[in-house]
Design goal:
Elements: H1 2-5, H2 9-28, H3 43-53, H4 61-72, H5 78-88, H6 105-109
Helix pairs in contact: 4-5
Length: 112
């Protein structure tokens, strides 16, 4: 039977047990994904997004970690902040690019 359904045998067994225990309602019940609730949510998340959108922004993810600690007394790992900002919010940090002091101002002005 598991081959016909293209599922592992343990999955089919689990489905059958749930069906015996509670019927179709038990099978169709959507359970929340395991894991902890996000630390950065609600008002804190709104303020972070607003700060990322403003002109000053942040220059590093470490700076965001420090800001969360100072403003909200929230200790969050660097990796958590990186995943949230980079992958979920798809925000970019405001980083000034280095400019050589030997550049010709006229030539540089032609690119802007």
């Amino acid at each position: 039977m598991s081959q016909r359904l293209s599922r592992d045998g343990s999955t089919v067994t689990r489905w059958l047990q749930r069906d015996r225990q509670g019927g179709l309602e038990e099978l169709l019940e959507a359970k929340p994904a395991p894991g902890t609730t996000p630390k950065i949510q609600g008002e804190i998340l709104k303020k972070l997004v607003a700060r990322l959108e403003c002109s000053e922004g942040f220059s590093s993810y470490g700076q965001i970690v420090e800001w969360l600690e100072q403003e909200f007394h929230l200790q969050v790992k660097y990796k958590t902040v990186y995943r949230l900002v980079h992958y979920q919010l798809k925000a970019t940090l405001k980083v000034a690019r280095p400019v050589s002091k030997d550049q010709d101002e006229q030539a540089r002005g032609m690119f802007f």
